[in-house]
Design goal:
The radius of gyration is 13 Å and the shape is globular. By secondary structure, it is α+β, with helices and mostly antiparallel strands. Strands 1-2-3-4 form a 4-stranded antiparallel sheet. The two termini are 13 Å apart. The longest helix is centred in the middle third of the chain and has 10 residues. The protein is built from 3 helices and 4 strands, in the order ββαααββ. The protein has a single domain, classed as Aminopeptidase, CATH 3.40.630.
Length: 86
């Protein structure tokens, strides 16, 4: 099931993006990522992603049998997206 991760793709501008499964060590970078997003970009998110406790719960409860939490990054860069798939 997870053998397809990480996945790589090239954006139109030539940057390489890596989609991988979330790991515990992503916590602080995710907090920073979501705090940089403007409020209108967070408007329809179910959770208050500016609350570090929310991100802590995500990274502490990584049960890939029920939910796949993924991170998209530009090669060598910070997270640029996070997503859960059931």
């Amino acid at each position: 099931m997870f053998e397809e991760y990480p996945k790589c793709a090239k954006l139109r501008d030539g940057q390489e993006v890596i989609l991988r499964l979330m790991v515990r060590e992503d916590e602080q970078k995710l907090v920073e990522f979501f705090r940089r997003l403007p409020p209108e970009d967070r408007l329809f998110l179910k959770d208050d992603v500016t609350d570090p406790e929310v991100i802590l719960r995500w990274t502490e409860n990584l049960d890939y049998t029920h939910v796949r939490r993924c991170i998209a990054t530009v090669t060598g860069g910070p997270p640029m997206s996070a997503r859960s798939a059931w």
